[in-house]
Amino acid sequence: MREPPVSTGPPGTRAKIRIPEARPGTLRRRRLEDTIFSDALARRTTVLAAPAGFGKTTLLGEWARGSDAYCAWVSLEQADADPGELYRWIVAALQGAAVNLRDPARAALLELSANPGHDPPADYRAVVRALEELSEPLSLIVDNVHRAGPRLDEGLVGALLSAGPPALHLVLSSRADPPLPLAARRLGGTVGDLRSRNLAFTLEETIQLLTQRGFDGQLEGKGLWNVTGGWPVAVAEGLAGRDRGIAPANVFAAEPRRAFSDYVAQEVLAPCPAPLADFILRATTRDRFSRELAIDLGGSADGGLLLEHCLRHGIFLEEIDGGRGPTYVWQPLFAATCRGILAHRDPRLAESLHGVSARHYRDVDVSACVSEALLGRQPRIAVRSIAEHWLELILQGRSLSLEQLCLRLPFPFSEDPEMLFVRSACRGIAGDRSSAAALGRRALAGVTGLGSGRRRRFEVNRALFELFIVGSEDADATVREGLHLVDRASRHPSATLAHGLFLLGRGAVRSPRSAHAASDLLQSAAAAGRANHLITVEVSAGAELALALAVTGDFSAAEQQCAAALSRAASTGWSCRERLAPIGIARGIAAYWQDDLDRASRSLSEALEFGSHPFPADSLAMVYRVLVDCATGDLTRVASAAAALDVFDLQPHDSSWPILSVVCAAKLCEASGDPDKAAALVRPLAREGQSPLVNALVAQLLRRAKDPDRALACASAVAVESSPPFARVCGALTEALVAASRDDPVAAHERLEEALRWAAPESILRPFVERRTDLLHLLVRHVSRGTVHEAFVAACLAQHPPEHVLRREHASLALSEREREILVYLRSMLTAAEIADSLFVSVNTLKTHQRSIYRKLGVTNRRSAVRVGISRGLI
To answer: What is the pLDDT of residue 489?
Structure first.
C-alpha cells in the first residue's frame, strides 16, 4: 500500500486534497474495489455516477488507501466551479502525490505553478507534459465532480480526459453523469462506469453489515434490504434505528424519520434546479407511473423533459417495460420520503396530486384509482371508477378484491346503491346467497335516488350480470335479451358497452341457435376493449372468438385466432390464465375432430384445470373430454370420464348443459359396451330445437342402436348451412350408412360424397375413423365409382387401423406403417407420381415400398395387392 500523499498546497488545503480517513464500522466492499482496480489497468477513465448517499466517497477512499498505485485526491466544492480554481486544486493534488514518486515525473509536477496564468490551454499542456514523465501508474480521483459546473470540459479535467497520458487513470465521482464527451470513449472501451445499481448494497452485503454490527444479519438483513433497496445511506439509517432497539425494517414503517427526510431534502433536492426539485416532489406521488401521468403530476409542459433528466442523471428512477408502453419506477423509500416532505411543506398540494392520479387511473386501474382518490379525499372518483369497471374486475376473477375496494369507501359513499349491488354480486359469486340478497335489496331500494344516467347504467350492468353470470334457463332467450341490453349499453360509458358485447358473445357461443352470431359480437367486443384500454375484455374476447370459430368448425381460423390472442396477452403483460381457458377448449375441439386425440386430451385437460372464472368450468370442455376418452377405447379413461361427469359442477349460466350431459352419459354407456342403454338415454332428444352437435351425436347413437328413422330425423336437422362442417359430416355419414343398409347405393354414395366435401377442407377425420368398420367397404366402392376426394379417402383409411386388422397383419408378414399407408393409396386412382407427391417422397422411394409390399403379399401387381389387402383386412 502506498503512503498517503502529503499536501504541498497553501494552508487549509490539506482536507480537500487528502484521501478521507477510514470511518469506524465501514463495510469493505471488495467487489467494487476490484472493479475500480480492473479499470485502472484496462481503462483510462472510471466514472462513479449516483445520487447522494450511495457511498461513492467512502468507496473511493477505501480503494485509494488500499491500492498499490499512487493516488492523487481532490474533493470539489461549489466554489471550484471556476476552471481556474479547479486547475489550482488539481495541481495541488498532483503535487501532493508527487512527493512519493521516484521518477522524473516528481520534479516535473513539483515545478508546475499552482496559480493559472493568462493562457489556460498552455497551463493544461504543461500539466499533461509533466504527467507524460510518469513511469508508474497514477490515479487522479476527483470527488464531487457535479460541483464543478457545466464548464468542466473547458478546464483541466477536460484536457486530461482528451490528452492525458496512458499512465494516468482518471476517476470521477459525481451525482450525475459529468458534462464531458464520454459517449465515444464508452464505445471505445476506455471508460468504465459504476452506477447506483452497482453501488447499492446487495442482500449479502446488508447481512454482512448487520452481522458486523453485532446483529442477526440472516434474520434482519432481508427486511432492511427490501425496505431500502440497498441504498447505503438508508441502510445506515436502519442500523441507527437498530441501535435504538427498532428492527431495521421498521425504521421506515410509518414514514421516514425527520432526520432522514432532512437529508433527502438537503442533499438530493436542494442541489437540483427549482423546476426539477418541484417535479420530483410532485411525481413521487406514485411509486410507479406512466409518462402521461408524470406530465399531469408535474403541472407543466416541461414534465417530459424533466422526466428524461431524472432518468439520465440517475435520480432514483428506473424505466421498465410496462406492456402498454414504458413504466417509470421510483426507488420506493426515496418516493415515500419525498411524499412526506411535500405533505409537510404543502399538504393541500399533496392531496390535490393524489386526485390527479385518481383521475388518471379511473379507466386504467380501478385499484390504483380508489387508493389515490381516498388519499386525495375525492371518493366520488373512486365510486365512478368502480361503477364503470366492476364487471371487468369480476371477469378477471377479482371479486374478493373488488369487494374490499367497496368496503374501503367512507360513509355515505359506501351506501351508494351501485356500490351495494357490486358487493351483492361479489357475495353471490362467493356463494353467500343470504348476504347477496340483503345487499341487493338495499341497492334496489336506493336506485330511485340516483340521477337518470347513473340509474340507466346501473340497470344495464345489473341485467348483464344477472343474465350472463348468474344464469338463465333459456340460452336463446338470454341472447335475445342480451342484444337488447347491448343496444341500451351503447348509450352508456364505453366500458359498459364493451362488457355487454363480450358477455353477449360468450353466451352466443354456447347457445344452440346463436353460435353463428358469436364471432361478430366477439370481434366487436375485442375492438371495443382495445379502443378503450380494457385489456381484460380485449384478451378475453379474443380467446372466446377462437372458441367461437372452433365451435362453428372453422379450425384453421380458430388456430390463427388462438395464436393472436396469446400473442396479444403476452405483449400486454396480461397473465389471467383462467380467461385464456377457451383457447384450450378451441384447440381441443379441433384436435378431436381431426383425430389427434393426444393433443385434444392435453388441451382440454388444461382448460378444465384452470376453468374460466367467474365461470368455474366450461360444459364444452367437459363434453369433448368425454368424447376424447370414449374415442380412445381405453376403459380406464372411460371410467375416469364417467367419474368426472358425475361431479361436474352444473352451471346455472349454461342452459345447454342438461341436454349435453345426457349425450355425454349416453356416449359413456356405448363406450362401456351398453348401446341399448345409450339409445334409451338419447331417444327423447330426437326432436327439433337441439344444437347441431347434439343432433349429430344422437343420430350416430340411434343408428347404431338400430333406430334408423329417428337417426335420419336428427341427421337431416344438421343438413343446413348454419351447421358446422363436423356436424354436417356426421349427419351425412349417418344418412349414407342408413341408405346402404336399405340397399340404396345411389343415395349412399351421394351422401358419402357430401360428407367428404365437408370433411376435406378442415381434415375432419374423426367421424370416418369412428365408423371405420361400417364405412370400410362403402368407402372402397365409393372410390371405384369415382370421387374428387380420393386423397382424403386414402388418409381416412390409413388413420389408426382397427385392432383386428393389426392382428391379421401380424399373422402374415407384417407391413410397416409406411407400407400400410401406401397400400391404401394404391386402391385409389392416383398415379404413382401423385401418390409420391401426397406422401412427400420421391417416385423411386415409392416404387421401393411397392416392391416390398408385393413381396410380402405374394403378388406381382397393384390390382392384386389391393385385392389381397382387402381380403386380409389391411384396407
So the answer is: 56
| Cβ neighbourhood burial of 110 (10 Å; 0-12, 13-18, 19+) | middle
Which neighbouring-strand residues pair with 288? 329
Cα–Cα distance for residue pair 518/64, rounded to 1 Å: 73
* CA distance linking residue 747 with residue 741, whole number of Å: 11
Low-confidence residues in the chain, pLDDT < 70: 1-14, 243, 248-249, 253-256, 322-324, 468-493, 512-515, 575, 610-617, 649-655, 688-689, 799-814, 858, 871-872, 875
- Radius of gyration, alpha carbons of the chain: 39
The DSSP call for residue 554 is: -
Burial 702-735 (b: 16+ CB within 10 A, else e): bbbbebbebbbbbbebbbeeebbbbbbbbbbbbb
Per residue in 528-572, pLDDT (tens digit) is: 888 888 888 888 899 989 999 998 899 999 999 999 998 888 887
**Planar angle of CA 760, 761, 767, nearest 5 degrees:** 45
- Yes or no: say if 668 and 641 are a contact pair by the CB < 8 Å rule: yes
d(CA 558, CA 118): 80
Using DSSP's 3-state secondary structure scheme, residue 553 falls into coil
Rounded to the nearest 10 degrees, how much is the dihedral formed by the CA atoms of 9, 11, 15, 19?
A: 30
**Alpha-carbon span 829 to 831, nearest angstrom:** 7
Separation CA 117–CA 114 (nearest Å):
9
For residues 765 and 755, give the distance between their C-alpha atoms in angstroms, rounded to a whole number: 11
Q: Can you give the pLDDT at residue 593?
A: 94
Q: Dihedral of the CA atoms 48, 54, 55, 59 (nearest 10)?
A: -40
